[in-house]
Amino acid sequence: MKKILEYLLPILWMLFSLFLFLAPPSDFDTGNSLFDFPHKDKVAHIVIFGILSFLWMRVFNRTNLKTGTNISIYALIGFIVLSWAISTEVMQATLTTTRSGDILDVFADLFGGSLGIVGYHILNRTALKVFC
């Protein structure tokens, strides 16, 4: 049961991101908000996917996934991020009339996923130095 709960947070984050990606555009998207700057949609993708990969890194390090090496964990997280990025863009292009798929969003998603992995390692090492 404990291992199932470990997976709950990243899965809930994926569902939340799906809601964000498929919801009709809000004031944030249309430029009528306080956060009006160029490419803010790409920044949002980077943040969302950075958090996603960070959460998956947390799960796989805590559950001691038996993949052999860290390279395998990175490949698995990369596969999850890439699959989710492509899936959300395809869903935006096919399931909504208010959104469109964009290959540049996939690149932003991959960049965010990479930042999440790096961020996890930086925070993990910093926490080890502070508490050990």
UniProtKB/TrEMBL annotation:
Q: Which residues form a coiled coil?
A: none
Bilayer-crossing residues are: 7-23, 43-60, 67-86, 106-123
| UniProt keyword rRNA-binding present | no
Q: Where is the VanZ-like domain?
A: 41-123
Instruction: List the Pfam families.
Output: VanZ (PF04892)
Its domain of life? Bacteria
Q: Which UniProt keywords apply?
A: Membrane, Transmembrane, Transmembrane helix
Q: Does the keyword Transmembrane apply?
A: yes
Q: Which NCBIfam families match?
A: vanZ_1
Q: What is this protein called?
A: VanZ family protein
Organism this protein belongs to: Sediminitomix flava
